[in-house]
Amino acid sequence: MTDLQEVDRIAAADHHLAVVSTTRADNSVQASVVNAGIVGHPVSGDQVVAFVTYGPAKLAHLRARPRATVVFRAGWNWAAVEGRTEIAGPDDPFPGIDPERLRLLLREIFTAAGGTHDDWAAYDRVMAEQRRAAVFVHPERVYGN
Fold first, then answer.
1. Which residues make beta-bridge pairs with 83?
2. Which of 34, 43, 51, 122 is deepest in the core (most CB within 10 A)?
3. Which one, of 111, 124, 36, lies nearest residue 80 by Cα?
């Protein structure tokens, strides 16, 4: 498997739930569950896996060691995407992404990860209050069954 379209098909089959693995300072692995989706990178346009987070451990690991593996599964089908990461958020300024672009980007990622919302203003407010960030995983290895 080398196709992000196939990854997205598997992701969509189970609510875009994914396990994200990052590396701690002691080289052990930290894993958590997120909703993630495939989006165009906001600067390059390249397809990346993206998720929104405010997890302090996950963000600290990614700041220090900017790599992650994201695994989606649906039944016995699974797909993994490994690669370098980038963070864009209120605590992680990103060239070309101002606060307004970040607000819209968080919505775009949420939607790509299967999310819907009845009150986007409330969504925006919570994202800002929680200082949520966008994480992009550039696909260097894509594999699965």
1. 68
2. 51
3. 36
Contacts of residue 82, Cβ cutoff 8 Å, sequence gap at least 6 = 67, 68, 69, 70, 137, 139, 140, 141, 142
Rounded to whole angstroms, the Cα distance separating 61 from 65 reads 6
* 3-state class (DSSP) for residue 27: coil
Distance CA 141, CA 13 (A): 21
Total domains present in the chain: 1
pTM assigned to the model: 0.95
What CATH number is attached to the domain comprising 125? 2.30.110.10
Residue type, 10: I
CB atoms within 10 A of CB 68: 23
Q: Which domain holds residue 136?
A: 4-144
Range 4-17 average pLDDT: 95
